[in-house]
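Hi L.,

As promised, Probable tRNA pseudouridine synthase B:
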Amino acid sequence: MCSFLVKSEANTNPKYGCSPEDRPIEEYIAKGVVNLDKPAGPTSHEVAAWVRKILGVKKVGHGGTLDPKVTGVLPIGIEKATRIMPLLLKAKKEYVCLMRLHKKVDEEEIRKILEEFQGKIFQTPPLRSAVKRELRVRRIYYVKLLEIEGKDVLFRIGCEAGTYIRKYCYDVGEALGVGAHMAELRRTMVGPFKEDDTLVTLHDLTDAYHYYIEDGDESLLRKVILPMEKAVEHLPEIVIRDTAVDAICHGSYLAAPGVVGLSDNIKRGDIVAIKTLKGELVAVGTATMSSQEILLSSKGIVVNINKVFMERGIYPQVWKTEKYKNNIS
């Protein structure tokens, strides 16, 4: 867990913007993300299309494809939040997998091999994959053996994005000398999205939307849809003062005087989330300094902006004044 460092004291003007949870319902939906429990059978694209139809919106996008037979966490971005989904593609993933061995193996031998298949591993994508079949390195953060029953091995695995669990099972089977295949798979985490009380089904989403349309009750809809800021919780963050917000919305980089506070784990080259004092996502960018360097800097660019998410004009345009220009020079 990282800590938060305070660089300077600042207040936010309640006349501008609002906390993500307090957005008017139409804006809340248009900047929302659903932590969806994908069922077995449909493709990720089909599930996303159903969400679009249920909510009556024009655009949705998902944060990482799941094969039709695979269930579990499938983040769905709505309208403006679709632009944030690519940030989840490289996020850490977790799965619960049922691996079926082709012959019975002693439990201690299974544990030994699973321990060896942690850290950096080499994988070649399977024949049926959307990427070029080249040998590549992927990191396995942990593997926890949950249960063994006959030839069935149930385990939980945390891994780098782009790890093929089907291939992982095949390689473990080869190492055991008996062969193995993936029988069932469920994704339990994508970055900040987990298999917890925020995970909802298509039925939950449908019911919540009907309560809103028929009775005007927003409460359920606000539970099953999360603010888009949830999708960047896995990134280090930098909080900025109100006077710096609109300048970034107009294409400026983030200068040191605009920083109020930041995560303590930022390294040069890291992708960081830039937020207002109210917690609104303004943009994401690439850090040009480490946390300690930003904390001690009184001038200079600290983040090169990659993508802006906040609309212009929500915060005042003080960046056009000479006083502001002098402060950031």
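The chain is about 25% helix and 30% strand.

Thanks again for sending the construct details.

K.
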